[in-house]
Request: fold
Amino acid sequence: MAKSTSSIPATASQERHGVAAGLKDQVGGLMDSAIALRRGLHKWPEIGNTLPKTRDQVLSALEGLPLDITLHETTSGIAAMLTGDKPGPTVMLRGDMDALPMPEDTDLDFASKTENCMHACGHDTHTSMLVSTAKLLSERRSEIPGRVLFMFQPGEEGYHGAKFMLDEGLLNVSKLKDGTESPIKAAYALHITTSMPAGMVGTRGGPVMASSDVLSITITGKGGHASEPFRTLDPIPVACEIVQALQIMITRKIETFDPAVVTITKLIAGTTTNVIPETATIEGTIRAVSEKTRNKVHDSIRRVAEGIAAAYEMQATVEIKIGYPVTVNDKPSVDFALDIAESLLGEGKAVHMPSPVMGAEDFSYVLNQIPGAMVFLGGTPQGVNPATAAPNHSNRVMFDEAAMAHGIALYSSLALRTLGVTLN
Ligand SMILES: [Zn+2]
Ligand SMILES: [Zn+2]
Reply:
């Protein structure tokens, strides 16, 4: 058990994990470079799985550190392994690196220089925090019994970047050259959010984020003159009925406590006012927080759409493009992470979220294979109410860079504590 170096007595969580005074000093010393890197990434955002400028910035920031770096070939992913001086298992930390295809309207002096491209989800902060964590833990290499794998991931915003990295063998690192095993014991990811004040973190055991699938339904009828609908098979009222029926299906067929969302976001039909078109298409998104409900919603959408179309002698073709799975946190990893966060940030600053977030995350692919947790990091700008702050994905979103200090401390502590090192 670590003794507090300050006059303030250690809290119960600090009794368990250590007071981390030296670690916090280290984080303080890294903040200038962390902010500089974050702003550099913010200025030159990139989209998808190919992020050459971002990769270059990360690699030059990691230069000189004692890391074994693997550059992924199917994407711009980087796997960087820090091997401690003592043997032990491996812990993985993830930071995603990609931005969004949208304009930036923040007036920040480091605002995006790339047209229609913005780091509006804070992945620039994640990447920078992970680089700083690599620096911090490299300095502590002599006390580390095991290894830390840093996963710098592209393509989180819908491009399945994590899956590409897994398919390329990211996790196939458990066997060392000398034949000893160092399996990946846990994996953690942080996600900054403006809906939680800086200085707080939150997450929950079990489902923490939803699955996300893309829906498209085409109703095929028979076109004709708008004045004589009885000579046609008009797909437009049928499309409207299906849109309504899907909402009824969600409330009547899906368990209230294992919810799902179907939102129709696009209706495509027709060309002018005197023509009944042959087809109408409905598009939207499907979210669920369990695979059971996800499958049930898929089946129900097919039944409802095909059944309604058949009632009017038409055909509905349902296509569901499978997106990210449900992100499921390992409960013990969540308790562990929140207890560590409390020891770093203070009592009441690490919260169990009552319900999942209906957004989706491709860290879900990692958590399907390795126990661990996705943890939200408070990042509302100073003086702004989290309830009214521009949210992640807004063209006006801004994050409190001071929150990065909490993120670096938490990433580092999760790695050290997973490997059994007391925080000092
Ligand atoms: Zn996002
Ligand atoms: Zn994100």
In short: The first helix runs from residue 12 to 17. Residues 121, 123, 156, 191 surround zinc ion (ligand 2) (CB under 6 Å). DSSP finds ten helices and 16 strands in the chain.
